[in-house]
Each structure stands twice: as C-alpha cells, then as structure tokens.
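We emphasize that the prediction below concerns an isolated chain of 127 residues; any contacts that depend on oligomerization or on bound cofactors are therefore not represented. The input was used exactly as deposited, without trimming of termini.
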Amino acid sequence: MEQSIIINFLKSFFTLFKAKIEEYKIVNKKIFGTVGWLNEEDRQDFVFKIDFDTLILSRVKSLCDFLYEMNLVNGDKIIVSENNLLEMLKKEGWSRIDAKEAVDGLCSLEVKMVDEGEETDSFFVHF
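Result of the prediction step, given as a token string:
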C-alpha cells in the first residue's frame, strides 16, 4: 500500500481529535508515531496496523475530512445518526455503497494508543 495514502488518512483521522502527527515510522505493516495537540504539552504514542484496502482507506480519509469540515464529531462521537450521515454524503455526490463502506470502515478501525511500550486504549470514532 502506498505510504502517502496511509499517512494522509492518519492526518485526517487525527484531525477529528484535534491532534497532529509529529513523527512516525513504518515497520512491516504497522505505523508507529506520536501525536500532539496545539498549545498542549501532552503527547500520545500510537500504532496503526495497515490492513485496509487502498481504495477503502481513501474513502475513509474523505469521510474524515467531511466530518471535520461539517463539525460532526464531538470527542470520539459522530453527532448525527448513521442514516443522517449517509443522506448527507449522498447529497454530496457519494454513492450509497461508497458512503456505507466508508462509514463502516471508519467505525470498525482503531488506532491503538501506546503507553510505556504497551498498547493501551484506542482512538476510534462511533455513533
């Protein structure tokens, strides 16, 4: 899978949490990195296992961008119903199948937090 697609997806995904990737490295099929928040000293290490098809990951990235631009995420929760979101995407020109696939992909993935070398909690989005 092309590295730029994965990194661009992660940038969009972390934007939902108001975080930015500060550094990362790719080892085998995992991305290890650190995110930070503007005007905060807190940092969080993460790991993301690359097990998504490139096309699906591109759609999920576009969905993350849409959610951010429309301000539809509060914390880790999408603040509209799944049906409402699908309708909004359809009005934006998404096919029903692509929209559903992107929503399902986003809601099924998690980026693990790493504390002291151990995978602990996760970054994820849900309804």
